[in-house]
């Protein structure tokens, strides 16, 4: 059976059958159904993005309650990242081939059930298993939801607004996760950073079949690219695992070299397999879309700096400034405001200037903001030493998220929208893992050196954070350079 869906059966092309406007000139977003659809898809994005950061402030409470070692504790945040990034490509292609609505429903069920299991966990093994399963669910939810968005809102203004809302939600959730994690941990307890997902999923699940058309696709796995699936999944999971473990094991350690080397070999074999396969998991023809590869590389490099920034600033405000969980979380609230404002401005500017200037400018602004943060002293003040850098960085973050989301989906055929969404989000997760691995090594090296030379712990750790944030600023400047090769899309209809 063909993997392509004809126009006569594709609900994204026959919108009138699903209560959507039939005429291309009509605005789906102007309808009540369109607004509710966008709200639903953004709720899915919020769930998936916030779970990457909401547990961070809860980690000390989790460690104390369940008696986790430092080695096992890192798998509470990293377990989610491992399966989320490792299975994203499979989730995106499955959405294209098996039906986006179907994959979104299955992913949401898995995500909700695993959140419940993690919240009730009495041992570290059960909690980590819950986080791994959450990543599996998210790897299905996110590419399915984004591909539904890009195929439902097809005209220029509608797509610009929808992608702007999506990207703004993602950036907002990344910052808000730290705040909500602090509020929940200091309030009802750390278990609620897991439980909080369940009621949201229970609201999302019944809305999916009511708002989204049933895009029937292939119902059989016959002819599915099994070899490509195994190679891609194995390579990506091993790559993320190697990056997560590298700071602990050492970059020159035999295990690290072997893990990353084998991962690279598996991914090279995957590309060779895709070039020869009749039904590839990732049709290489997708890279003929102008600027797609550059958009994904930009995402990778930028997220290497962004996610590491949140990590080290959180450590600084708790470990050096002595903030409580809720106060540490509240310190990121201005970031959510800045991101929201920047996303709205970016959404309005895309039609005028295109995506390339937004991404380049946003990455440079963010680089300046992170550089400002890299100058935090041991006796730092929030208003003078943190807030200015956080606000500058937040505006850059909003511009980059909106610009990359639009550029990475511009010109992508509807039947490959799930794959394009998966590629973008895989780049994001791998970039985050890579940035944390590299910058953690930088911070640890600087801190160890300072301790060996007689500096007190607060000074040594602050120096390590400063060094890591400085390198993060260089990552963001590098993203601006890569973005020069991104297609300058104005959000035209594709």
UniProtKB/TrEMBL annotation:
InterPro entries for the chain: EmrB-like, MFS, MFS_dom, MFS_trans_sf, Sugar_transporter_CS
Protein's GO biological process: response to antibiotic
Topology of the protein relative to the lipid bilayer: Multi-pass membrane protein
Transmembrane segments: 38-62, 74-91, 103-122, 128-151, 163-184, 190-212, 224-244, 256-272, 293-317, 329-350, 357-374, 386-407, 419-444, 464-487
Organism superkingdom: Bacteria
Pfam families linked: MFS_1
Domain Major facilitator superfamily (MFS) profile residue range list: 37-490
Protein name: MFS transporter
PANTHER family: BLR6921 PROTEIN, MAJOR FACILITATOR SUPERFAMILY MULTIDRUG TRANSPORTER MFSC
Keywords from the named record: Antibiotic resistance, Cell membrane, Membrane, Transmembrane, Transmembrane helix, Transport
GO cellular component terms, semicolon-separated: plasma membrane
Keyword 4Fe-4S (UniProt): no
Protein location: Cell membrane
MF (Gene Ontology): transmembrane transporter activity
């Amino acid at each position: 059976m063909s993997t392509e869906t004809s126009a006569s059966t594709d609900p994204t092309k026959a919108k009138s059958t699903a209560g959507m406007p039939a005429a291309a000139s009509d605005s789906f977003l102007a309808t009540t159904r369109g607004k509710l659809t966008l709200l639903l898809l953004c709720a899915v994005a919020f769930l998936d993005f916030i779970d990457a950061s909401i547990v961070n402030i809860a980690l000390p409470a989790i460690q104390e309650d369940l008696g986790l070692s430092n080695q096992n504790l890192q798998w509470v945040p990293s377990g989610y990242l491992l399966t989320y990034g490792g299975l994203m490509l499979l989730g995106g292609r499955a959405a294209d081939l098996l039906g986006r609505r179907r994959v979104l429903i299955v992913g949401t069920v898995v995500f909700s059930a695993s959140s419940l299991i993690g919240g009730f966990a009495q041992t570290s093994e059960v909690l980590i298993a819950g986080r791994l399963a959450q990543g599996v669910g998210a790897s299905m939810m996110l590419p399915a939801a984004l591909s539904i968005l890009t195929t439902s809102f097809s005209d220029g203004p509608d797509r610009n607004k929808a992608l702007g809302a999506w990207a703004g939600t993602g950036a907002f959730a990344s910052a808000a996760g730290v705040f909500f994690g602090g509020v929940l941990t200091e309030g009802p307890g750390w278990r609620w950073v897991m439980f909080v997902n369940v009621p949201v999923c229970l609201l999302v699940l019944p809305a999916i079949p009511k708002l989204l058309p049933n895009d029937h696709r292939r119902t059989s796995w016959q002819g599915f690219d099994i070899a490509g699936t195994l190679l891609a999944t194995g390579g990506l999971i091993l790559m993320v695992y190697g990056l997560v473990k590298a700071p602990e094991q050492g970059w020159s350690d035999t295990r690290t070299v072997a893990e990353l080397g084998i991962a690279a070999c598996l991914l090279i074999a995957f590309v060779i397999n895709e070039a020869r396969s009749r039904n590839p998991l990732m049709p290489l023809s997708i890279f003929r879309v102008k600027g797609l590869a550059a958009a994904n590389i930009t995402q990778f490099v930028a997220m290497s700096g962004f996610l590491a920034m949140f990590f080290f600033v959180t450590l600084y405000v708790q470990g050096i400034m002595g903030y409580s969980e809720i106060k540490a979380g509240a310190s990121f609230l201005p970031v959510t405001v800045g991101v929201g404002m920047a996303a709205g401005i970016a959404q309005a500017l895309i039609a005028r200037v295109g995506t390339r200037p937004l991404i380049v400018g946003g990455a440079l602004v963010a680089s300046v903001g992170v550089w400002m943060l890299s100058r935090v002293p041991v006796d730092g003040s929030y208003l003078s030493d943190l807030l200015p850098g956080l606000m500058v960085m937040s505006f850059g973050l909003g511009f980059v998220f909106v610009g990359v989301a639009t550029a990475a989906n511009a010109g992508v055929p509807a039947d490959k929208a799930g794959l394009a969404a998966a590629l973008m989000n895989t780049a994001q997760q791998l970039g985050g893992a890579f940035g944390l691995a590299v910058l953690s090594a930088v911070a640890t090296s600087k801190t160890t050196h300072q301790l060996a030379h007689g500096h007190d712990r607060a000074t040594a750790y602050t120096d390590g954070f400063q060094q890591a944030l400085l390198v993060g600023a260089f990552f963001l400047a590098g993203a601006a350079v890569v973005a020069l090769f991104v297609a300058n899309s104005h959000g035209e209809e594709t």
